[in-house]
Structures are given as C-alpha cells and as structure tokens.
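The aim of this short unit is practical: by the end, you should be able to scan a pair of folded records and say something sensible about each. We start with the first protein, listed as its amino acid sequence and then its structure tokens.
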Amino acid sequence: MPVSGRSVITRGRVARTLGALVGTSALLLTGCATNTEGGDLPSGGDTVEVNKVDAIAAELPEEIASDGEIIVGVNIPYSPNEFKDPSGKIVGFDVDVVDAVAKVLGVTPVYTEADFDKIIPSIQAGGYDMGMSSFTDTEEREEAVDFVTYFSAGVQWAQPAGGAVDPNNACGLRVGVQTTTIEDIEEVPAKSAACVAAGQPPIDIIKFDSQDDAANAVALGKVDAMSADSPVTAYAIKQSDGRIETAGEVFDAQPYGWPVAKGSPFAEVLQKALQHLIDDGSYLEIAQNWGVVEGVITTSQINGATS
C-alpha cells in the first residue's frame, strides 16, 4: 500500500484532484457537519504553556536566529493537522506542535501557503526553512531533504458506538470512504476483493465527497463503518460526542516528518526542541487537545523512514 502522508500527488492518503478538500469531521448533535473552513471553530488548539530553552535555542543556525523567524511552507486544508479557522488563521495539531517548538527556540513561525508539490523544492532552494504538511518521511524523499519525525499515522476504521466491526472481516458490510483517497482507491477495494475470492459477499463501498459526510453517515448508522487516515478518524471521533468509536487497530502506520534542507544543522535543532516537548509532556498535551493521541511518538528521529 502507498505510504500515508503526502506525496507529489497525494496528501495524507487523499489524492489531490482539482478542488478536493478534506473536511474537519466535526459532528453536531443533529448529525450535520459544519466545522469546515468558515464554520464554527473546531475543538482543539487549547493553549499549552511552553518556555524558551536557551541551551537548545543557542544551536539555531545564524540566519534563523538573526531573523528571529522560521519560514514554514504549508498546504491546507488537512484537518485536524492544518486548516483555517473561521477568521482565516491557520490552525491544527501540526500548527500547535510547531508553535511550541518555536517557543522552545525563542523564534516566531511564519506560515506560508504553497502548493503541496512545491514545498520540498522551495526548501531545497532556500525559500522555506521547513515544511509542515503531514509529509510521510520516506526513503525516496530523504534523498532530497532531511526529515524530523513528529507523529505516526496509518489507516483507522471507525464504527457507530457499540458496534463490532472487524476491518479484516467486513464482507457484506457498508463501508464509507472519502472519494479519491487511498482507502477508496486501494485499501477497502482490496479487502472487498479478498472477500469475493473467499466466496463471501463484497464490501459495499459507499463514497462521499467529504470526510464530514462519511463520518456523519457512521454516526447516523447509514453505513456500518468508515475507513480514513488515523488522525482524521481520531479527530472525527473526538468531534462526534461519543457517537462513533474506533473499529480495530491502526495499521500501515508510518512516520510524519518536517522536511528541512539536506544536511542543514536546523534538523538537529528541531529534533532536540521536539524531544524536549515530548519529554516534558507538552507534546502529549497538544495531541490530547486534538484527539490524536494514537499517533504520538516517544522519540523524534532525523530521517526515520521505514520504507
């Protein structure tokens, strides 16, 4: 299965077709999802107290230290990692983690929107100090840039509360997916084909234009389950007011990382700052705020690709 996170044609496991957007999977008591860009502000983003660590900040490359800024290339939306709140501010789990890292380093992050496939080339050209867009750290990408790992993401199924769905034995069930995602194109169809090969009924794959719609369908019992990237599913569950829950474990997990220029000493500084946040509990607190604890890591690595 292709890696999670974004590539030049995929974002998370979402294929980037023209105009395709990932919703925030926020569920109201009525079962309607409204917390997309321009809607009500989703939960998460609570302030976590973080202080500068002089010993780590002292290791910043001179050009960043003198500017007092980290220029961060980001492509949105991809809730809950990076998206815009109703005021147009870029928010999300990734944003809160990078904000916290910047506080450790005593600098200000400057988030600059860009096409996803232009972020790594811009880092190579010196336009951005780092990228922050749910990149999977892969061996192929490590040939172009270095990565600082900060999260582990895979595929996670969800079901209505109290359900008993087994993602590995879902023959004959109605399973919701967002159209053009890897879950839609590869993961669930492969499971369905295995059902047919075993003489069982295929999975009835129900396609939705947005992740909000898929999550609402689960909450309302219109489908038996849904499949999505693990942070997307976790956030949908957090927003569902207890109406949906996980089905099975996260699988095909791989590391998300921040890309930086190949050989740059900035990678080690970022890694140390993030490890400080992991060790003092701030990182976990941020993950709890956004409902993505399943993907937290205990050790940040430089170039931690698994494939």
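Turning to the second protein, read its sequence before its tokens, just as you did above.
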Amino acid sequence: MGVTSLKNPWFRVAIAAAMVFFLVSLTITLHRYYTFYASYDQGIFNQVFWNNSQGRFFQSSLSSALSTNVVHQGEFPTVFYQRLGQHFTPALLFWLPIYSLFPSPVTLTVLQVILVTAAGLVLYVLARQHLDSPLAALITLSFYCANAVLGPTWANFHDICQIPLFTFTLL
C-alpha cells in the first residue's frame, strides 16, 4: 500500500485538515483584503509581481521608500528601485505565471493559502516516511493549527509563505 493511499483513514484526516485549513484561511484572508485591512506589504508584493509581469524584474518604488538610502541617507525614493537588494527572493518568479494569468492582489492572497496548504500535505508525506500514519496525521494537523503558521498565512502576502513548501519538499 502506498504512503498516501485514500484507503488509509489517517491520510483522510490529513486531507480533511488541509481542506478545513484552506477554506478557513481563504475566507479570513479574502475577508481581510476586501474589508481594506491589507497593508503596505500586500502593496509591495503586488507591485513587484506586476512589474515582473511587465518585464521590470523586482522593481518596486514602494520598497524604495523603505530602503537604507532613503531612510538613513535622505535620498528620494526611485521608481526603478531593485527590491532584490533588500530581500533576495528570486523564487517569487516560480509564481509569476499564475500572477500573469490573474494579475490581482487577490491572486497573491489565494497563492499564499495554497502554498501553505500544500506544505502541510508534503509534511504528511515526509512524516509518513518515518512514522506511523496516526502520528504523521497528527503532525500535519498540528502544523495547520500552529500560531507560527496561522499568523503569517492570515496576514498579507509575504515571500516567507513559500519556505515551508520548499523546505518540506527538499527534505
């Protein structure tokens, strides 16, 4: 029997936890966006993705306003500021095709929830390689319930949302 067989009741528990996490997180994050509680970071990442889709890779005037040159040296923000100098995250280019199809801040919100949900399922498969199904399912459930996962997932889009998926996949 495979690691992730649908006949395994504990795998079904992990899938159910993923579905509940996805639906609750998507509801909260979309409500947060549509009630105007999104903040500066959501705008920064939307601008970075928009500029990437237009061929101006990692340019962000919003990030420029937070740069050391502006904050500490009194320079004026620039439109063509390269965000990679502030936060080196070229992995954002993986998600550019999705954003290009649906160019909206909402896309980033949905993408964040999808990435974290997928990370939990990869964690189940990873845990199942070394542990029994019940324990692997409980570890997955605890991942979805952890404050360190819920807080960032329910906040604005941020590049850290991809780290659990990348890390668990690497392991």
